[in-house]
Amino acid sequence: MTSDLSVEVGGLELRGPVLAASGTFGYGTEVPLLERRALGAMVSKGIFLKPRAGTAPPRIAETPSGMLNAIGLQGPGVDGLIRDYAPKWAAWDFPVLVNINGESAAEYGELSARLDGVPGVAGFEINISCPNVEQGGMYFGNDPRAAASVTEAVRRRTKLPVWVKLTPMVSDIGIIARAVEAAGADALSAVNTFVGMSMDLNAYQPRLSFRTGGLSGPAIRPLAVHLAHQAARAVDIPVIGVGGIMRAEDALEFLVAGCRAVQVGTATFVNPNAIAEVHDGIAAFMAAKGFASLSELPRYLPRD
Amino acid sequence: MWRLFLTDAPLVERRGVARDMWVLGFAAPEIAASVKAGQFVNIGLRLGSLLRRPFSVYRAEGDRIEVVLKAVGVGTAQMLAMREGDVASCLGPLGCGFDLSRPAKSVTLVSGGLGVAPMPLAVRDARAAGLHVTWVHGARTADELCSETDGDDVILATDDGSAGFAGTVVAAAPDADLVLACGPNRMLAAVSQRWPQAQVAVETYMGCGTGVCLGCAVPLTGGGYDRACTEGPVYLAADVDWQALPSHLSYAVSA
Ligand SMILES: Cc1cc2nc3c(=O)[nH]c(=O)nc-3n(C[C@H](O)[C@H](O)[C@H](O)COP(=O)(O)O)c2cc1C
Ligand code: FES
Predict the structure, then answer these.
(1) pTM of the model
(2) Which end of chain A has less Cβ packing within 10 Å, N or C?
(3) Is residue A1 part of a domain?
(4) Is there a domain that residue B67 lies in?
């Protein structure tokens, strides 16, 4: 038996539930060896209106079952993206969402307006959760009013699907989730990295030049499953689970916890074919359990 | 673009080449057949640390590649605990290697400590290009010198004078048409002072090794950063902003 793995997520029809997470797949032009048939969609590296150099090295540090990163949203800016990458995306057989960033709500709106209608751009993932920038980033993501105003600013400027990527660094993710749903978000990605720190015992200072970094990888998985589940319980729009997925079983945990789809990030660094292996593993699980489509997979979503 | 391979490579050999310094040989035929001097492989162990670790390819012969390492932390200790037949996942060849296609008659290879790593392949490729090869290799003490140096001329140097030239490799090295160097970033900064046109293989932390994570940033004198794993790890010495490149990598000690 082969099961139907296609899903509808926040205005996009996807051929599978496994997506490439922002910042772990570049602009999709440089991941070698991945069998792209398995890719439901890709979220681009985060982009600002203007080019950004990013943070000084060291930018990454490995930690138990995870890694800290402080890349600082290095990127070519919207003009470079439109010139160098969007034309390639337009020819691909899976949708590409652009992870958009700004220092003010107006900047997010401006960025989405610039990208709206550009062939190859299928939608937006608003990043209000980057821990590695001095201005904006995560600080929009832990205030429901700021999160809603950024979402509205983008919603007003585009008809394309608008997803919002939530930060785990909040005391109640449900409040932020409801605020951005009310502001017009089509889906939520939960979650971005957790803020962490690690010390260099030779230099007596942080291992990262930015001092702190975003923690990703299997170390955060149970935390992320819980937060994605809480977000899914709080809203009616679909939630895309992100955080520490290495294998199909990990992705299935997010799906059973109430997510419509998942994103795979750090695992791609470890295994360049991780996304395909997660996709195929989900297919094998569905077939073994006799589910004809993902809508038949039982979800644990108590509403009380 | 060359082809990239991901292969489960069994350990086929292990030998000591200096105090605490080991060469591991893995059967990885496709990588062995295509790797160029200065390129690297990203090696991961299934039950080891999460991220792969980059290693310059030391030698490639038949279906085998070799890498050189020291037990500096948990990750490398796990690799050294491998037994013959145990499998490591090898991704490679990665990065841009040394460019030996420029018109030249002679080359000086300058290596410090584990910076020997890309040099045996550099000797191979330089000989194939018909160059006279001088390899200058240095370490802190005599017993830390790699025993497998090779070339038309070999010059050894130690910081404590216990073997060869007493002083740095940069002071000991003769000029040549081409200079290729690998070693601690501090040593490479000194190389760049003397030979701005040298090709140097830098060391950085890496996340993916394939160009997607931007974790391996190398600061450039022209401004901005690029990726050691993709545009590098070999740079023209004058292009690297040595002040801004971390001079020692803590995970070499702690991870
Ligand atoms: C090196 C790196 C860069 C990242 N860059 C971005 C980014 O630009 N925008 C964003 O929204 N998330 C970014 N993330 C977060 C990931 O998309 C993802 O939310 C997080 O890593 C958790 O998933 P994982 O454990 O599967 O990696 C980045 C993560 C890493 C490791
Ligand atoms: S190590 Fe990921 S881009 Fe170089």
Answers:
(1) 0.95
(2) C
(3) no
(4) yes
Domain assignment of residue B29, yes or no: yes
Q: Which of A26, A57, A62 sits opposite B251 (nearest CB)?
A: A62
pLDDT mean across residues, chain A? 95
- Tens of pLDDT, residue by residue over B200-229, are 999 999 999 999 999 999 999 999 999 999
Structural domain boundaries, residue A38: 7-296
Q: Would an 8 Å CB–CB cutoff place B91 in contact with chain A?
A: yes
Q: Provide the shortest C-alpha distance from residue A222 to chain B (in Å).
A: 17
Domain range for B81 is 5-94
Indicate which ligand has the atom closest to the C-alpha of A30: 2
Q: Average pLDDT of A111-117?
A: 97
Contact criterion met (CB < 8 Å) for B224 and A53: yes
Q: Does A122 reside within a domain?
A: yes
CA gyration radius for chain A? 18
Both B125 and B67 in one domain: the answer is no
- A57 to B44: CB separation less than 8 angstroms, yes or no: no
Contact A84, A132 (CB under 8 A): no
Is B146 a domain residue? yes
A259 catalytic? Reply is no
**Minimal C-alpha gap between B74 and chain A (Å):** 11
> Whole-angstrom Cα distance, residue A150 to residue A127?
10
Q: Which of A42, A82, A111, A130 is catalytic?
A: A130
Task: Please provide the average confidence, as pLDDT, over all residues in chain B.
Answer: 93
Is there a domain that residue A302 lies in?
no
Write out pLDDT tens, residues A5-41. 999 999 999 999 999 999 999 999 876 667 789 999 9
